[in-house]
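Could you help me review a protein record that somebody else here produced? What it holds is a sequence and that sequence's fold in token form. I need someone to confirm that the token line plausibly describes how this chain folds. Take the sequence as given and treat only the tokens as open to question. This is what I was given:
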Amino acid sequence: MIGFVAAIAVELSKGQDLFAQISEGGIPWFIGTSILLSIASLVPLFQGVTAESKSDGLMTSDAELWNGRLAMLGLVALAFTEYVKGGTLV
């Protein structure tokens, strides 16, 4: 979800498409952010807290799952659209 929002934000601010962002040093940022967020998401698990135990109201584990899935589809759609169009989305 963070990657999708970051890709759109950089595209709007700098005018770089997704492939340009990756080729200009985006891979180390992607790997570093992925490791950091993965470790951060494991901390509550080690403390015995599950997503289901903290789910209530609008912030449920199912809502988070759907948000993640839609963000993945959005990132793939962004990359595909930019590839077909041959440039930035905006």
